[in-house]
Amino acid sequence: MSKFIDRVVLHVRAGKGGHGCASVRREKFMPLGGPDGGNGGRGGDVILEVDPNVHTLLDFHFHPHAKASNGKPGEGSNRDGKQGTDLVLKVPDGTVVLDDGKVVVDLVGSGNKFIVARGGRGGLGNAALASKARKAPGFALLGEDGEEGDLVLELKSVADVGLVGFPSAGKSSLVSVLSAAKPKIADYPFTTLVPNLGVVSSGDTTFTIADVPGLIPGASDGRGLGLDFLRHLERCAVLAHVVDCATLEPGRDPVSDVDALEAELAAYKPALDADTGLGDLADRPRVVILNKVDVPDAAELAEMVTPEFTARGWPVFEISAVSRAGLRPLTFALAEMVEQYRTAHPKAAPKRPVIRPIAVNETGFSVIADPEEPGGFIVRGPQPERWVRQTQFDNDEAVGYLADRLARLGVEEELVKQGAEPGAPVTIGDVTFEWEPQISAGIDMVPTGRGTDIRLEQNDRISAAERKHASRVRRGLVKDDEE
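^ that's the sequence the OP posted. Answer follows.
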């Protein structure tokens, strides 16, 4: 027997970025050919995509972990690493993604995509790090980890008409005769354990109808199957009360049944009011369907209670799902109500992405006192934290390059302003180090040439000043020992 799963917890992890390569070009008779290390590849993203052929979250129930592939590291000869492959997960239409109880995205519409975890950036190779001051870097940047986290996926059925009623009211039978759907039908309560969707055609209008499992008093508080399936009514434009007029249970009648369910619908607060624009369930258009009028006593009861519902302004239809009496007027009435809703709520045009560039004078970091370390400081900001993650701390040249970047960003100057003393513990991300301003170009702000290749620092060329002085000595303008 297939299972219907409409709520799962999914652990997603994007791919890691590949490390950059530190390589020096080597050829015969070219001892210092220059850096040629390639960049690492980007890690793969985890993407959710709506697929009309998927109707349940069952796959994620049995496979709750989703991980994209990692990027490959860079190689010598300026060869960049291969990018990680994106992992595309197919989800049913109407899937809502929640993170820590907050709605992240509402996936409605075939082909709609959303990146739930972005892959890490690949590290730069030493060829990309070369500059006039650092002609042959002996290091490369590390790749970053991809995003990861636990997400909750909830499925909310996308239907135009939602059938509401007590167990065994005949909702599944009505769906089976109005559409080609074949739900399970039996003469005992709670036969329907999963929502059933059917497609109904009436003239030029085609709409979907959802059979929600039977509700009982207390459903909005989690009693019975209520809370599990009330969410499937959130997207319905029209709610139809299916009333069993032939019930033999004592103390039950059509009016009391509808009043009890109306109380539950009013108590339930949809989580997507702002996103769908439908409002509370109590505000949706109503229609009352008096079922099983093929039974003589049920037909008399339906005739008695019809004025009660008509006085509330609700259309009333007497039908029989068995004999199919009254189905044609009901179908046309539902189609008309759906068309009225679609006219009043046209589909919004897709929003264009808005790119907001960061201001030029935006520092992108903050320095605060460390509450757990006397005299210490914490540096926060996306740039310095990313730079720390990219640094090989077992490579002195790479550490010097990090210090240069932090100094250019203004971190050193801000630490001086806040009274940081040499040796003060400074925390950036997950790394804590002792601040040494003389080494890290903080106080004097004088470039120290850290990160350069020591092989290129051994230079025997005569400087321009020395050549000028030698020329003046030859012309007799100055003596050899004079400055």
